[in-house]
Amino acid sequence: MALLERHDAGGIAHLHMNAPERLNALSDEMLAAFQEQIDALGADRDTRVVVISGAGKAFCAGHDLKQMQAGRQAEDGGSAYFADLFERCASVMTGLTRLPQPVITQVHGIATAAGCQMVASSDLAVAAQGTRFGVNGVNIGLFCSTPMVALSRNIPRKRAFELLTTGSFMEAEEAREVGLINRVVPPEDLAAQTQDLAETIAAKLGAAVRIGKEAFYRQAEMDLDAAYAYTGQVMVENMALSDTDEGINAFLEKRPPNWQA
User: Fold this and answer.
1) Whole-structure pTM value
2) Is 75 within the bounds of a domain?
3) How far is the C-alpha of 235 from the C-alpha of 227, rounded, in Å?
4) Is residue 11 domain-shared with residue 81, that is, in the same domain?
5) CATH number of the domain bearing residue 220
6) What's the DSSP call for residue 26?
7) How many domains in the chain?
8) 175 CA to centre of own chain
9) What Rg do the C-alpha atoms of the chain give, in angstroms?
10) Spatial distance between the Cα atoms of 201 and 48, rounded to a whole number of angstroms
11) Sheet holding 4-9: strands in order across?
12) Which residues pair with 69 in a beta bridge?
């Protein structure tokens, strides 16, 4: 079976990490599989939503520590390998944010270190009750500096710093309250409720959602005046779509829209 399985249905691409014996660690091979799918999805106009999940008892426990220790045996102490590893991981994480499709993580068990980073790098997240989140590298002497980038852009800084320096876990309910995830659901409802969210988004005009996702992240980095100037132009672009014209007419005429895209 593939390390990262993909199943497509109804405009939704499901990416399922399938390395339960390693807690779906982001090994070299898993990162390569993710990058391959991200590259493919970036040019895919049929897929409207991406859902990421994991097999077994955990969503993702972060990097593969055994593989990292093997990389340390190189003549340079692993410096070149580690630099390449974290660059490849960053490419995957930023790739999720830059995909034109909304990305939903379906989380259970634990999401730690780079696994937590993946949740923070996704656009939306649904977690099962009892799921725990952490950036626990400090417990083994490795500060989670790269996971910190996404985490500190999702939750309040002081809470992020506490997690990073104590190595403690955050429970699912708090993760929802501070903005790391959107919903906490019973474990038996996790797949169904994630699918429901994905289907709701997939039913919208794909072109509008793609335009909106890019604008969402770009305007967040601008000052207020620049953000309004930029998003005004985005609205102009969106209004120019024939499907948007159809959507507005359908609303005014009290009928379902007949979108072509």
Assistant:
1) 0.96
2) yes
3) 12
4) yes
5) 1.10.12
6) B
7) 2
8) 15
9) 20
10) 8
11) 4-9, 12-17, 49-54, 103-107, 124-128, 183-185
12) none
CA distances from 77 to 29, 50, 70, 80, 81 (A): 21, 38, 10, 8, 9
Please name the residues in contact with 152: beta carbons below 8 A apart, sequence gap of 6 or more: 160, 161
Range of the domain at 48: 4-202
236 in the same domain as 187? no
Tell me the two tokens of residue 16: 């399922």
Task: Say whether both 113 and 64 belong to one domain.
Answer: yes
Task: Report which residue type is found at 23.
Answer: L
Of 100, 136, 132, the C-alpha closest to 119 is: 132
Model pLDDT for residues 115-160, shown as the tens digit of each residue: 999 999 999 999 999 999 999 999 999 999 999 999 999 999 999 9
pLDDT tens sequence across 41-96: 999 999 999 999 999 999 999 999 999 999 898 889 889 999 999 999 999 999 99
| CA distance linking residue 87 with residue 33, whole number of Å | 15
Contact 174/156 with Cβ under 8 angstroms? no
CA 33 – CA 81 distance, rounded (Å)? 18
Answer yes or no: are the C-beta atoms of 17 and 24 closer than 8 Å: yes
Strands (E), 64-196: 103-107, 110-112, 124-128, 132-134, 170-171, 183-185
**Sequence-distant (≥ 6) Cβ neighbours of residue 123 within 8 angstroms:** 96, 97, 102, 103, 104, 213
